[in-house]
Amino acid sequence: MAVVFLLAGRSMAAEGQAMMLPVDPVPLVAVTAKGDRPFQIEIADDDAEREAGLMFRQTMPNDRGMLFVFPQTEGVGFWMKNTPMQLDLLFIGQDGRIKAIRQGEPQSEAVIAPNEPVRFVLELKAGTAERENIKEGDLVKHPAVNAVSGIN
To answer: Of 9, 1, 11, 3, nearest to 77 (Cα)?
Structure first.
């Protein structure tokens, strides 16, 4: 199994500027035991966008996130170097189910990874998963995820 590490490097954000991607017109929805939780998302679906991610981003709205889309299910690892916000990282399998929820500490070089390969990662402001009752095993719906999982 190959492991992909998304680390700060020579990316759009290399000059110390936050990358701002367009907000997708379709909200991502986390289906929880207490109801659907919609989020406006930016989609990072190429190498440069995945590498830059939320680096240098100072803030974002509570209902906003970034969905990292990988071309295949694989082992992934993230770090928070050059990311000043605390984040929740939701690791999502090819089936659209959340496999792990991890917390990211600002400016840390510690690798954040799930215990299994995933196809997607959703980054949200720290505390969002707990506040919105999002748990491991919950389903995530969005056209980018549905196209892979086959779920509508």
So the answer is: 3
Both tokens assigned to 29:
């929805």
Is residue 67 within 8 Å of residue 42, measured between CB atoms? yes
Number of domains in the chain: 1
What CA–CA distances, in Å, run from 111 to 89, 105, 138, 140, 152?
12, 10, 24, 24, 33
CB 86 within 8 A of CB 30: no
Read off the pTM: 0.89
Domain that holds residue 61: 3-149
Each residue's pLDDT tens digit, 12-32: 445 678 888 999 999 999 999
Q: Which two structure tokens, joined as six digits, stand for 22? A: 């367009």
Angle at 19 between CA 140 and CA 58, to 5 degrees: 85
Indicate which CATH number applies to the domain containing 17. Answer: 2.60.120.1140
Among candidates 88, 58, 53, which has minimal Cα distance to 69? 53
Q: How far apart are CA 86 and CA 89, in angstroms?
A: 10
pLDDT tens digits, one per residue of 70-89: 999 999 999 999 999 999 99
Of residues 51, 55, 42, 26, the one with CA closest to residue 122: 42
